[in-house]
Structure formats: structure tokens, C-alpha cells
Automatic annotation (TrEMBL), chain A:
UniProt protein name: Electron transfer flavoprotein subunit alpha/FixB family protein
Pfam assignment, any one: ETF
Keywords carried by this UniProt record: Electron transport, Transport
Family note: Belongs to the ETF alpha-subunit/FixB family.
Record domain Electron transfer flavoprotein alpha/beta-subunit N-terminal: where: 3-188
SUPFAM superfamilies membership: Adenine nucleotide alpha hydrolases-like, DHS-like NAD/FAD-binding domain
Claim: Transport is one of the keywords in the record: yes
Superkingdom in the source lineage: Bacteria
UniProtKB/TrEMBL annotation, chain B:
InterPro entries: ETF_a/b_N, ETF_b, ETF_beta_N, Rossmann-like_a/b/a_fold
Bilayer-spanning residue ranges: none
Electron transfer flavoprotein alpha/beta-subunit N-terminal domain residues: 23-209
Protein name (record): Electron transfer flavoprotein subunit beta/FixA family protein
Record's keyword terms, sorted: Electron transport, Transport
Length: 325, 243
């Protein structure tokens, strides 16, 4: 009984989360004495597919019918269910990405599988039950979910499992599932993606700013800092509400949840709703002119002072550090 | 057009989340409950869509009697009528089965949920119900427009957006951007008292998973305050090892 993992690509290139989920599945497979089969849907070259072997997939299924070149959750759920049946896989793993959130529940409902969404650690097994820790209450808490159903789906939070290289020799097989026209009655008309930007949910470093920046005209210093760090930019809710930054950058309880290695909060007070979206960051740096700002209580490092002065200096210091190392 | 809006009753966003002593249940004492903020957005858009037409907006909640004040608030914000499925919501699968059962006996053109509930927040219900009813579902919708039976939807993707189109009926999980929440006015509040609220029994649902325990995040260590950026860079490099 292999473990099936569904991997996402963007225009033929795997997302970072693809390697994360293969690696996650491989860690389980090693413990369970089984193998990992990776399923890729869409037009992906064999050379790219072979990269999955580097993280432990020993069989790679590719589905590249033209009708499936774009993500349609209804059709993709049907394809993954078909692959699970042909592989006799009872455990299916995918990423809890934006697309994954629309896909995993459909797949689980189709299979009557138990679904653990937002998994943040490897599962443990007892008998036929699987236990896994996941986020709950908008990241204000964690829950241990026990899946008792025979079929199990785990949607792994982006950035919660570091991909580990584990060379396997893989075979690539083409799967040609029969498609139901009713599953394909969605037309993707347009995709707008800022390709020069690092995707916020997947970013390892996030530079985030709040109302303390005073206005959109001051964001250049935030973007410069992000640039030298190779970071994604984010903001607090009032900043996107005011139209200073796009909604897609708003992090927090009602925005995007991030868990980067480094979160730098600049001119953000640290309201509970904001913290909910960022508290699982590994290291938090806070820059705020008010020494009493609540954000300092949950930070690892803090600097008190005017962001407009400190941020350019920090950018310069990081540049100098990178030049010397 | 007949629209169904799924509303969940959740702890206010400022609530401190604590658990009972054996960590198996959320501690509700002193917690104020509200309509899930995303569901408020969905409801607001639904009311906007039927305004000035003979369309209706039904709200549905799966919950025990304690959720009725939340349901009345949804009626005050402009819903036509309400349904409560009388059961404590066990998980998203249980909720989705109840909603799908009710919706399958009716014929809604459009079903809306929030992108996620801020308590259990699995962002599961829209896609689960979509699969159970065998209709398209789109999660994390930022905007949508309807022309006759055609619907154009903008959904969030990493670093951007995707625009797609399909035909009604569909189910959407809505996020910010779809509409602004409505503040109920006095007339709304008065009329909400007399709008129909039907209570229906729950259907049996097999258990697929359970929650064995909840935990609060471990507190972070003491913050290290630094005086200058060179010192910060040094610490991030040598101690935190993130640079
Ligand atoms: C239902 C609901 C949901 C919400 N969801 C979210 C959410 O998901 N995400 C979110 O972020 N918020 C959310 N909020 C809003 C939240 O409560 C706060 O209002 C918000 O996070 C505050 O944003 P801020 O820190 O940017 O602004 P403020 O609270 O105004 O803080 C600005 C900070 O900047 C500092 N500052 C000012 N000038 C400078 C300077 N020159 N240099 C350095 N520092 C300076 C100030 O000392 C202050 O600490 C929500 C609120 C509600 C009611
Ligand atoms: N108990 C409930 N009753 C009705 N609708 C619900 C309930 N729980 C969740 N929903 C709906 O499903 C959406 C997503 O919830 P979730 O899958 O829990 O994140 C919410 O925004 C609501 O619209």
C-alpha cells in the first residue's frame, strides 16, 4: 500500500510545496515500510518530474491531458481519486495551499476519507488510526486530529516541513483517467500572477509593515529591505483596507497565515488578530517607536525607534553582511 | 434567484482562546460570539444581489439553540428567512453533510459560505458541500458577478488571482473584496423578530475523525531588545541563524 502525494506545478515547474509534501510522505513511508507515489497533473516535462525522485518518490504518475492543463478542483479531485484507487493508496497527501484548500475537501468527500487540514507536523499511527497536529482557532491554538476512517487525506501547511533530499530511483508512468465532461465545465479566463514577487504563504522571510509607516509613499523602504533579504512583503489589515497595499498582502486572523523562518514587523502594534496570522513564525523581529507596543511581548528581537530611520539602516547593514559572507 | 448563505457562530476575534482542564474542549466562558466575519461578507453580497428583485436569501446554521441570536442578526442584516439544523457542529464534514442534505431538498441557484470559519477554520465546508451536491465549488473568492446563469469568479492564488467562469448553481467560499459587511438598521432589527426561522433535525453522519486534544502555543522566550541594526544583523546571523 503506497502513499499517494499530489504535487502542484505552476506552468510546468513544481512549487516549493511540491517537494515539501513528497518529503513529508517519504518520512511517513520510511516509518511504515512503504513507498511514495507522486501524482502530477498538467504539462510537466520528464526532467522536472524526475526532481521528485530526489525527495523520495519512487513512482511518478503523470496525467497530462490537455483539458487538465489548468487547475479545476472538481476534475482534479476525480483524477486523484482514480489514482488512489489504481495505486490502492489509503493515505493521500497534498499541500494546504490556496488551490489545495479547494481540492482536499472535495477529494475527502469523494472518498469518504477523514481529512486533516493544516497539518504542521508528521503524523503518528496507532493501529489503523492516524494522529496529526494541526492549527486551529486561526492559529491561536493547535488541535490533535485523530483520523479513524480507513481512507485518510492530509493537507500539509506550506513551510511547515522542510524538504529533505532522499534519492530514490523513480519510474515515470502516464495515467490516462477517463474524464467526466460535467467536471470540466469551468473555464479559466485569466491568471494574473506577479512573477517577480515571492509568494507570501511560501516565503521563508516576510517583511511586514503597518499603519506606523504613515502612508503608501513610504513603502519603498519596505520593498528595498524585502529585496535584499529575498523576502515577501506583507501588511496589517488597516493598511490594505486603506488601499495602501493590496488585500493579498494582508496577514492575520482574517488574512493570510504565514509561518516563515523570519518575520519582521515594522510599525505594527501587535493586535491579537494580527498575531494570529504570524505567531507560528520561527523568529520575530519588531521595529516600533513605542516601547510599550504589545508586539514586543511576542517578539524574539526588538528595536525601539522610528521605522523611517531604522529600516534603511537595516537594509544597508544586511547588504554589508551579505557582501562579507 | 434563490441564495443560501451558510453562517457559523464563532468566538469574537478578540477572544483569548483557552481550553478546559483536560484540553478536550474550548472554554466558552466569558466569550462573546459573533457571525463569522467572512460569512457576514457573503451575506452582504447575497442581500445586494437580490435587492430590488423577487429573489430570496436563506441563511442556514448548524448549531444548538444558543446560536439563535447570531441567526437573528443575519436576518436583521437582510436575509429573508433562516434555517437552523439542530445539532452541535462536530466538524466540517458533519456540517457539510447537514447543509448538503437541506440544499438537496431545495433548489438554490447560489450557495455562499465564508472562506473559512475563524474557530475551526478548515476552509472545508464550501468544497465538501460542492462535492456532496456535485456542483462546482470555488474557495477563497475575492469577487464575483452573475449574468443570467453565467458567473464570473475571481479567486485568490499565491501571489495573484485567477479569473474563471461557469454556470449556476455553484458554491463559493467568499473573502474580503466580495462586499463590505452590512450594519443592520433599526428597520432590519425590528423585522428580524418576525422573519421565519425553521428548526430542522440533523441527519446521522458517520464519524471520520475526531479531535483528541487542544493546545495553546508555547509562550516565546523573553524578547531581546537591541540598540542598533548591526547588533540585530549579528544576532540574526549567529543566534537565530536566519541570515
Ligand atoms: C474582526 C476583525 C478582524 C481583524 N483581522 C485582522 C487581521 O487579520 N490582520 C490585522 O493585521 N489586523 C486585523 N484586525 C485589526 C486589528 O485589530 C488592528 O486594528 C490592526 O492589526 C492594527 O494595525 P497596525 O498595527 O498596522 O496599526 P496600529 O494599531 O495603528 O499600530 C501602528 C503602530 O505603529 C507604531 N508606529 C507609529 N509610527 C511609527 C514610526 N514612525 N516608526 C515605528 N513605529 C511607528 C505605533 O507605535 C503602533 O504600534 C482585525 C480587527 C477586527 C475587528
Ligand atoms: N456550523 C455551521 N453552520 C453553518 N455554516 C457553517 C458552519 N460552520 C461553518 N460554516 C460555513 O462554512 C464556512 C467555512 O467553514 P470552515 O470549513 O469551518 O472553515 C464558514 O465560513 C461558514 O460559511
Amino acid at each position: 500500500m503506497a502513499i499517494l502525494v499530489y504535487v502542484e506545478n505552476i506552468e510546468g515547474k513544481f512549487k516549493k510545496s511540491a517537494f515539501e509534501v513528497v518529503s513529508y510522505a517519504k518520512a511517513i513511508a520510511n516509518e511504515q515500510g512503504t513507498d511514495v507515489t507522486a501524482l502530477s497533473i498538467g504539462n510537466v516535462a520528464d526532467e522536472e518530474l524526475n526532481k521528485l525522485a530526489g525527495f523520495g518518490a519512487s513512482k511518478i504518475l503523470k496525467v497530462d491531458q490537455d483539458q487538465l492543463n489548468q487547475f479545476i478542483n472538481k476534475a482534479y479531485a476525480a483524477v486523484i481519486a482514480a489514482a488512489a484507487a489504481s495505486e490502492q493508496a489509503d493515505l493521500i497527501i497534498l499541500s494546504n495551499s490556496f488551490s489545495g484548500k479547494g481540492l482536499a475537501p472535495r477529494l475527502a468527500a469523494k472518498l469518504e476519507a477523514g481529512l486533516a487540514d493544516g497539518a504542521m507536523e508528521l503524523p503518528t499511527f496507532s493501529g489503523s488510526d492516524l494522529q496529526v497536529k494541526k492549527t486551529a482557532f486561526s492559529n491561536k491554538a493547535f488541535a490533535t486530529e485523530v483520523i479513524t476512517a480507513t481512507k485518510k487525506v492530509i493537507a500539509v501547511n506550506p513551510n511547515s516541513h522542510e524538504p529533505v533530499r532522499d534519492e530514490a530511483s523513480a519510474t515515470i508512468e502516464t495515467l490516462t483517467p477517463s474524464l467526466d465532461a460535467a467536471d470540466l465545465n469551468i473555464v479559466i479566463k485569466d491568471i494574473v500572477r506577479a512573477t517577480d514577487k515571492i509568494s507570501l504563504p511560501e516565503a521563508e522571510i516576510v517583511v511586514s509593515a503597518g499603519r506606523g509607516l504613515k502612508g503608501p509613499e513610504n513603502w519603498a523602504i519596505i520593498e528595498e529591505l524585502a529585496e535584499v533579504l529575498g523576502a515577501a512583503t506583507a501588511c496589517s489589515k488597516p493598511v490594505s483596507d486603506a488601499g495602501w497595499r493590496p488585500h493579498s498582502e494582508h496577514v492575520g486572523q482574517t488574512g493570510i497565515v504565514v509561518s516563515p523562518n523570519l518575520y519582521i514587523a515594522i510599525g505594527i502594534s501587535g493586535a491579537i488578530q494580527h498575531l494570529a496570522g504570524v505567531s507560528s513564525s520561527k523568529t520575530i523581529v519588531v521595529i516600533n517607536k513605542d516601547p510599550e507596543a504589545p508586539f514586543f511581548k511576542v517578539a524574539d528581537y526588538g528595536i525601539v525607534g522610528d521605522a523611517l530611520e531604522i529600516v534603511p539602516k537595516l537594509t544597508a547593514a544586511i547588504q554589508a553582511h551579505k557582501a562579507n559572507s | 434567484m434563490r441564495i443560501l448563505v451558510c453562517i457559523s457562530h464563532v468566538p469574537d476575534t478578540t477572544s483569548k482562546i483557552t481550553f478546559n482542564s483536560d484540553h478536550t474542549e474550548f472554554n466558552q466562558s466569558g466569550v462573546q460570539f459573533i457571525i463569522n466575519p467572512y460569512d457576514e461578507i457573503a451575506l452582504s453580497r447575497a442581500v445586494e444581489l437580490v435587492e430590488g428583485t423577487d429573489g430570496t436569501v436563506t441563511v442556514i446554521n448548524v448549531g444548538d439553540a444558543s446560536t439563535e441570536p447570531t441567526i437573528r442578526k443575519a436576518l436583521a442584516a437582510g436575509a429573508t428567512d433562516a434555517v437552523r439544523i439542530d445539532a452541535a457542529p462536530r466538524d466540517a464534514w458533519f456540517v457539510a453533510k447537514q447543509i448538503a442534505q437541506y440544499a438537496s431538498e431545495q433548489s438554490f441557484d447560489l450557495i455562499l459560505t465564508g472562506r473559512e470559519s475563524i474557530d475551526f477554520n478548515g476552509s472545508q465546508v464550501a468544497a465538501l458541500v460542492g462535492e456532496l451536491l456535485n456542483i462546482p465549488s470555488v474557495s477563497i473568492v475575492k469577487k464575483f458577478d452573475i449574468q443570467d446563469r453565467d458567473i464570473t469568479i475571481e479567486r485568490e492564488i499565491e501571489g495573484g488571482k485567477e479569473v474563471l467562469s461557469t454556470q449556476l448553481p455553484v458554491i463559493l467560499g467568499t473573502a474580503e473584496g466580495v462586499a463590505e459587511p452590512r450594519i443592520p438598521n433599526m428597520r432590519g432589527i425590528m423585522s428580524a423578530r418576525t422573519k421565519p426561522l425553521q428548526v430542522l433535525p440533523a441527519v446521522d453522519v458517520p464519524t471520520l475523525s475526531t479531535i483528541s486534544k487542544y493546545e495553546s502555543p508555547a509562550p516565546r522566550g523573553q524578547v531581546a531588545m537591541v540598540d542598533d541594526v548591526e547588533q540585530l544583523v549579528n544576532l540574526l546571523h549567529t543566534k537565530a541563524k536566519v541570515l
